[in-house]
Amino acid sequence: MRRLTGCRRFKFPGIKISLYLAVSCAMLFQGAFAQDQDAEVLRSIYTASLTDGKAYDWLNHLSNQIGGRLSGSVQAQQAVDYTKKELEELGLDRVWLQPVMVPKWVRGTAEFAYIESEPGITNNVPVCALGGSVATPAGGLKAGVVEVQGVEDLPELGRDAIEGKIVFYNRPMDPALINTFQSYSGCVDQRYSGAAEAAKYGAVGVIVRSMNLRLDDFPHTGSMSYGELTLQERIPAAAISTNGAELLSTTLTLNPEIRFYFRQSCRQLPDVESYNVIGEIRGSEFPDEVILVGGHLDSWDLGDGSHDDGAGCVQSMDVLRLLKLTGYRPKRTIRVVLFMNEENGLRGGRKYAEVASQKNERHLFALESDAGGFTPRGFSFDCSDAAFERILHWKPLFEPYLVHQFVRGGSGADIGPLKSEDLVLSGLRPDSQRYFDYHHAENDTFEAVNRRELELGAAAMAGLVYLVDKYGFTPVQQPIKGR
Amino acid sequence: MRRLTGCRRFKFPGIKISLYLAVSCAMLFQGAFAQDQDAEVLRSIYTASLTDGKAYDWLNHLSNQIGGRLSGSVQAQQAVDYTKKELEELGLDRVWLQPVMVPKWVRGTAEFAYIESEPGITNNVPVCALGGSVATPAGGLKAGVVEVQGVEDLPELGRDAIEGKIVFYNRPMDPALINTFQSYSGCVDQRYSGAAEAAKYGAVGVIVRSMNLRLDDFPHTGSMSYGELTLQERIPAAAISTNGAELLSTTLTLNPEIRFYFRQSCRQLPDVESYNVIGEIRGSEFPDEVILVGGHLDSWDLGDGSHDDGAGCVQSMDVLRLLKLTGYRPKRTIRVVLFMNEENGLRGGRKYAEVASQKNERHLFALESDAGGFTPRGFSFDCSDAAFERILHWKPLFEPYLVHQFVRGGSGADIGPLKSEDLVLSGLRPDSQRYFDYHHAENDTFEAVNRRELELGAAAMAGLVYLVDKYGFTPVQQPIKGR
Fold this sequence. Notes:
Two copies of one chain form a homodimer.
Chain A lengths: L4 H7 L6 H7 L7 H21 L2 H12 L7 H16 L4 E13 L5 E7 L2 E4 L2 E3 L11 E8 L4 H10 L3 E4 L10 H6 L2 H12 L5 E5 L27 E4 L1 H13 L4 E5 L3 E15 L4 E11 L9 H20 L6 E8 L7 H12 L3 E7 L7 E7 L2 H8 L2 H4 L6 E4 L15 E7 L4 H4 L12 H21 L12
Parallel strand pairs in A: 5-6, 6-7, 7-8, 11-12, 11-13, 13-16, 14-15
Antiparallel strand pairs in A: 1-10, 2-3, 2-9, 4-8, 5-9, 10-12, 14-16
């Protein structure tokens, strides 16, 4: 019943206010009136997003018509074409593709694994190859298992205990932390460098407990690195679902002699050309100052990359659209960048920073959304004390929207390479409780995203971009005259 | 793989701290040390909830083994028996049932409805009887339709336009409001008194757009009242899904002469006996001062009542358990009350207040969770200025848990009848974005509840109960000696 969706839109137009805003935005001075006026602009942005947002429809297409968008895949190219076309339809001042060579890793046929508790007695368990892993031999790999709680355990166990075995990394994410990204950080070394470390002790493969706080049957993929290992030294690495990890651990407790079998046919192909997708509204007063908002267009291949990071892409696209809808005319250049290859290479982020540096572009602010399309709780800022102090003055404007967290901290992987002294990097901080239920897994699909939560994130981002554009990071005690 | 769930529990025991707490809790004085100590108690409560909570398992049983618990139903009685048994297993000082007569409304056979755009050309649409509605005639009811945006439209239309017709209330919830409960409040009069009003103008039935911000196919039931209408004057009322409402509205625009058919066989039976389920830990110093925490055990019948209000019940039960787990010995009596019949009568809440008044019980604080098992954002307080000022001093303790909202406002329906001058009423405020996707509909099931979000709510509630128990509402400038 697609046509009818429009009815909801019609009943709450958020656009009529544009003339008023165009007029009132001309009056720029500091003080209570400016705050009132900013509050009105934020209100109009939120209303536009919640009644007339496009993020959800775009995400529907990215998720359900295109699907997982692993770098170098047909789907990644379809996503480039689709988002470029959609940005062009927004009537921006410029939309273009920025070429970048990306790695192309392919999963091959579906992985298969079982626990062999006695010869001939097996329990299948859900696994998936980690991104960047080598394949097992064509017939699979079967070996005894050593369970560890992290790479720190390997030296103590030593080569004798590990050689010829599969190392099973089973340290779970800590459920007691409130910020689930902290729990993730405390575990992800097992996935990223577990194989490289285990190989040094003669392991023949590694199985890693999925980075998931829930007990379920979805294996979660993600990037890994072999570090300095030569091609010959590399051993296959797979993630096992949390339920599978519990079963394997229990079975090992009952009988340490059990064997584990897994088969995967993933491989690394030569790099291929892909693109960052970029669009911008040119600034009316300071066109050479760039405010960037973005997410990454690539995703893992198991699900549809709806939260990671389709959500961040469509929110970023809608930031420009919402600003246009409310009739605000930016003074600085507002640029949306959909980065390619965040998941397994960060080539898009690096290429963007490289080209920006070559062109001597001045970036004032870069905001990334790459933590899921959940209810926004705040922003993190990677910036100077002075800039952060300026930013804190805007915090009360977000209070009516329950956006409370304005904290120092990491921003986003793609914008990281841009880092410089006078650039403010920022990350949207959505509620993190559900993120790792879906992260890099088959269930990261459109259904897992709530429309309003997604739209509230786009509105929060647009609100912040508006304030940065209007005021820059000029200390607040000085009267603001145009910048 | 149920047995294995225990493994997660084993790895992060939140209980070992109890001895330390028992010792340190003995040292009660105001100031930085007390704040540090309170911070530690809150940390231990959160850890216990996130690593060793029982709320989710209880909710699983309530939702999946029992299901919807409409007052007077077999399931409502099963829920009484089950929660009483579970409370008894917690080793509380007292667990009992409080008898209360409740209305018994039954839905009968599944409702059926269609839009007849031309004689013989029909489109089925999802509807459900509103709670308390009368049935249609056995063969159903077919009539022309008048669409309105609210009861305010009726006088203008007048009897000529309405008589013999079905009134279709189609004012949607306002998506621009951030607090979705406000949007709900702005619409729910259509459901509650739409039939009573329309009947006065000779309408033969009413169809009400579901109180849902999403466009989907679930009709949402809920309570309604016929006000002063006699039995003969009552007309049947049903909710239609939001997609159905859009279709009906569009069809009406194309042809105002279309007819609508619906059939429902619901009816009101005589009142039956049911129970509030109550358990308490007796206070060590002030046993006569009661701190109440609760939710309502009854639910609508379409789904499993998982968010509304299974979540609030199991969170309230876990508040007592978490306090015990952390080794805290309450000074005041901490009482959990699972109220019966919030949805269609509030008899449980009224009975509880009546008995409390008869017994001259002194209630100091009553906290209800009845807004879904989502990430907690804060609390609302219905209390004196002095008490609120005291409460605000506790706010920083909740900062690490992203519980930011401490606001004046409504608390919960069940605890409302207790209201008195020196009682502080409070409501948990979870994130409200997804609530009305599920509220009173078939999809309010266990799967819609995220374990961590539910557990964070229980922890926030236990933290607040701990602080109220420890300090009462004594103004903060006075040294606290025992109370």
